[in-house]
Write a structure and sequence with these properties.
Order of helices and strands: HHHHHH
Radius of gyration: 30 Å
Strand content: under 5%
Largest sheet: none
Distance between the termini: 65 Å
Number of domains: 2
Number of helices: 6
Number of strands: 0
Amino acid sequence: MLIASSYPFLDIVWTTVVIALWVIWFWILITVFSDLFRRHDIGGGAKVLWMIFVIIVPYFGVFVYLLVEHNGMVERNQKAVRQQQEQMDDYVRSVAAKGGGDPSDQIAKAKKLLDEGTITQAEFDSIKAKALA
């Protein structure tokens, strides 16, 4: 109890606020740096100058970057999201195409295998049940 009595409640609140501000600062800093590295419209020197400005004048530098580059940040973020969505759609299409596609095609392939003697009647019935499910 001695520790609790020597550290009053308002000090705990203040410490929590300071920690929250640090977390917010690092979150915004990482967002700004990731946007800087994603940019292709400026050279390395301009990126370094922005990084130095953001580090030397912490909150002010980040807020200036957000005010000056907010439209570009939104466009780059939307472009990245579109690219990720297109990659996911392509992947899903490729996996779906490998899955056998139409149930009638699956049944026809299974029937051909049954006629060739590759699979048994029980295996054919199982494939047919899965295709129709």
